Amino acid sequence: MSLRKHHLISKEKIVFTRIITLFLVLIGQGSYSQEIKIYNVNCHIPENEYEVFSDYLRNQVSFFEDYFELPDTFQISAFFVGDDTKKQFVGDDAHGLFSYRFNRISVYKTYRYHEIFKHEFNHWIYSKFSKERERQLSEGIAELFEDSFYHGDTLLFGLDRNKVTAVQKHLNGKINLAIWLGQSNEEFYVFEKTKNYQIAWALMYYLYHQKPFIFKRIVFPNSNSKLDLVKRVESSYAGGISQLQEDLKSYYSDLNFELFERGRHFLQLEQNDSAIMFLRKAIAAHPNHAESHLYLGIALEEIAEVKESAEHFAKAFLMSPRLEKVINLRKAYLAMDRMNYDDCVERLMSQLPFANTDNEKYTVFNSLATAYTLSFRPIQSLKANKRAQKLYPDYYITENNLAHAFLMINEFDSAIIYSSKAIKKSKNLANPYAHRGMAFFKKGKPKKALKDLGKAEELNEMYAFTHLYKGLIYEQTNQLVEAKESFKRVFTSTVQPMAMLIASRKLGQLGTKEEEIVGLYLSKNSDKGKGDLEYLLSEMKNYDRNSNYSENYDLFN
Fold this sequence. Notes:
Layout: E1 8-13, E2 18-23, E3 35-41, H1 49-65, E4 75-81, H2 86-89, E5 96-99, E6 104-108, H3 113-129, H4 135-146, E7 148-151, E8 154-157, H5 161-171, H6 177-181, H7 185-190, H8 193-210, H9 212-219, H10 229-236, H11 240-253, H12 257-268, H13 272-285, H14 290-302, H15 306-319, H16 323-337, H17 341-351, H18 358-374, H19 378-391, H20 396-408, H21 412-425, H22 430-442, H23 446-459, H24 464-476, H25 480-491, H26 497-509, H27 514-524, H28 530-546, H29 549-552
Parallel strand pairs: 3-4, 4-6
Antiparallel strand pairs: 1-2, 2-3, 5-6, 7-8
Helix pairs in contact: 1-3, 3-4, 4-8, 5-8, 5-11, 8-9, 12-13, 12-14, 13-14, 14-15, 14-16, 16-17, 17-18, 18-19, 19-20, 20-21, 20-22, 21-22, 22-23, 22-24, 23-24, 24-25, 24-26, 25-26
């Protein structure tokens, strides 16, 4: 989850169409040959959406890595096609297709092409695990991911009201779940295809949220298991398939999904007041729905109703133990967002004993490193980054983070080495260029410094540290007008608390009034209210009084 904004996008030109190659440096993999090539064929994908697709891929890969190990190397192609090529790539009556033979995803560019992309990519991942290709499972998880979204760092699966209504009808009808589970792949697609998709989704949603351990045994059985799907379900679910059918019927029949779905929708839009209203109604209609309590807890947390939020998190955990890690990490990230770094570190440290996979351990150590960096504790940040590096030695994000940590403790040669390693693997990421640029300046190489900082700004003009570093260089070379302008740009970039706090102090030293500094922040964050204004002011004053960066690290002076 901590890697949600990091990926590499490179461009190549070929005849007839443009290729965007997304190199997915998957945590848990030492190789850098995993890649997805995205083609536009008689259609146009907006430039800013390649980042969105990269995030989808990373999120789905991260989900599956909790259950099985992906190949060390892979390559797959994704074709987005327009009307003239639809029949050639996906057929007359489909909107997406994954071809095992050609190792290719094809997506018809309709208004739902994002959802279709997630659906088809799921089939590719699942094919790497399941040689049997049991369609009841593969299509069920693919349908889950169609409705997935991230709220902050929390992966959430939405509910489609039309699907729920249809499932209620199917379960109240004549469906026999044992016969349904025993369908061959051909029968699944030929007979009542839409109905099969809906039931597959309902089964996966229920097992994933209510029976996480059974979900794993059924969907990702031990490699030595030779039981077919029917026997796996019969032996895994207490009471067998007949009891599962009754439980499914009960689960979907008395849950007011319309209220829940509206609450989820407003939460996704970050309209927390509306989300809270509908989620409270959903809980009143169905008090034992874990996800309603989880989402309400998140919405309440966002408006600082901490006590009530904690109550709903506790209820969510009691109803679905799978949510414990989600809740704990959510609290840690929220503490980090609010610059309560001690609380964040404490929560992350408490998670370490429960981090069972390398993926989970990496997430905790990487997040610890970030919290330590933001609270001006570079020595601890360096140690946490090194623990993360031991798990995945060649991961470019870790190398970039190490460069930042070495930069903060004035070990400029090491900062240059690790920045250069990250740049070699990720030429389109601004961060390592910015860190290396500052290290070059401290080494007395201003030309190289400005070249790297210029490249960082070209790649991402919203990266706050680029402007902070340029301001520091201008200040130290007595170009005070340019320094002021660079420091001000920190506040109109993507919010980076550490960069903002340093820039605010520097602007104060250069004669800029505190009110103007806050005005810059609020101009970038126009939806922020009076509470945010007062909070930012208090944090600036607090760091001016108590921070130790000016005493121990000459990088910022």
